[in-house]
Design a protein that fits this description.
Length: about 70
Amino acid sequence: MNWDIIEGNWNQAKGKVKEQWGKLTDDDLATISGKRDQLAGKLQERYGMAKDEVEKQLETFASSYDKRH
């Protein structure tokens, strides 16, 4: 999936992001603004996940988001 689709639809996507990763704040989501690398960094920070785990979760999220849209 092309992350540009999520970034372009960030206002809609951020609700799904918040459902998936509830520790992210509204301020986090505003700062991330759809940028995949920024989301990955916040997930590492908030959840203490390794980079490879974050990447796996982002790929899963992007795939499921693509199927919904």
